[in-house]
Amino acid sequence: MGDWEIISDKEVKELRKMVEDTGVQNLPNYIYQKAKEWKEVKIHIAVLGETYVGKSTFINQLRGVEEWDKTYAPVGLGDTTLEPKAYENPYNKNMVFWDLPGVGTLKYSKEESYFRTINIERYDFFILMSDQCFSENDAWLAREIRKRGKPFFFVRSKLDDDLRSAEHDRQCIYEVLPRIHKSCIDNLRKANFREPNIFIISNYDHEIGQFDDLMVAIFHSLPDLKKEAMILSIGPLTHQIIREKKKALHDRVFKIAVISAGAAAIPLPGVDVAVDFAIITYEIHFYMTEFGLDEESLMHLCKKTKTKYDQITESLKHSKSLLTGKSTLRTLFMKIVKTQAAEQVGGRFAKYIPVIGSIISSCVAYGFCVNFLRSEIDLLEEDAHTLVNIVIDKNKKL
Questions:
Q1: DSSP secondary structure letter of residue 146
Q2: Distance between CA atoms of 280 and 267, rounded to whole angstroms?
Q3: Is 164 exposed, middle or buried (0-12, 13-18, 19+ CB in 10 A)?
């Protein structure tokens, strides 16, 4: 879709059917429910592997928790997982990570009963993790999971440890990665697993290795609603995840614009009156949280990087003013209203709202709302990339 083609054919058909069934008066509430539908979706993620391979660290990273957080999964204790253990995402209780017992032990042999024990149907996808070459047990698990139609991902962890060792031999990452990849593939092929797709990662430094590739592969393995829930439930850990968040937020803009511009069922003069500004304000705050730009997230980042709050906020071009000025959003919105021609924006959007136009005071209000929200998403995205760069710089100095 182009910049302004924000409603898909599927969504238009859905809206038309809703209007035919219940009338336009219920449309704003219907779309509001659709906009928050992702938070009701349950996602269960299975992580398997031997002791010390980095399962807990991986789970903690995707949950956005640190050692000082109460829900932190213990790391490096060396106790073998005997029963499935659940860790909720503190930002979305419907996303749950499961640390599962591996197979090939005295308690869990490679039998059908293992899958009944872990309740295999519960999970949306599986992370098969190792810090060495994958074993025959890993290959067996992958084959059995595939038989049941579940997505799975081979994840080779602790790339940072490999790179530190390689420094003694004066090797760089471009030499280390192919060697690890070949070793893993060779081992899995010996176990009769012909086409292994392997992601080599560091749990601590996401900019090296294939962490981004892994996350994108996970996102695109899920149905649309679960994909949206996954993207919006994990933190802005990398530049690629931030770009994925931007796409997801852009996709939901049309819903918020309909709710906002359609809130005034009686036509009123003036775009500033037609648009429900409370909804817009709530949405911007939601974007800030998604990009890690809200005050709580920034304070968390300060503690993690040992950086002063003022130093962090000073580096933010757009978010800084939103954090300090209560009237900034209205000022920004009205600036857009005054500087763009109503005919130009209205013309762009008129053909996209054949269904919802009857309850919106004007397609101009709808157009301005979309324009404003998309502009804010783009500006906040830039600040989110700045925060990732701060973390990268801090990691280099450690």
A1: H
A2: 19
A3: exposed
Cβ-contact 365, 223 below 8 angstroms: no
Q: Hey, where are the domains in the chain?
A: 9-35+235-397, 41-230
Q: Lowest-pLDDT range, 66-75, 172-181, 332-341?
A: 332-341
Answer yes or no: are the C-beta atoms of 281 and 329 closer than 8 Å.
Answer: yes
Q: What is the pLDDT of residues 301-310, one digit of tens each?
A: 999 899 999 9
Beta strands in 149-205 (DSSP E): 152-156, 198-200
What tokens does 353 get? Answer: 């709202």
The fold of the 41-230 domain, in CATH, is Rossmann fold (3.40.50)
Tokens 């804010």 belong to 376
CA distances (Å), origin 257, targets 35, 71, 234, 381, 393: 11, 36, 25, 20, 38
Whole-number Å distance between alpha carbons of 244 and 215: 10
pTM of the entire predicted model:
0.85
Rounded (10°) CA dihedral 107, 110, 115, 120: 120
90-121 residue pLDDT tens: 989 999 999 987 776 546 666 778 888 889 99
- Using alpha carbons, list the distances in angstroms from residue 192 to 100, 115, 127, 187, 260: 24, 21, 19, 9, 56
> DSSP string spanning 326-348?
TTHHHHHHHHHHHHS-HHHHHHH
Strands 85-89 and 152-156: unpaired
- Quickly tell me which residue has 């060792």 as its tokens: 165
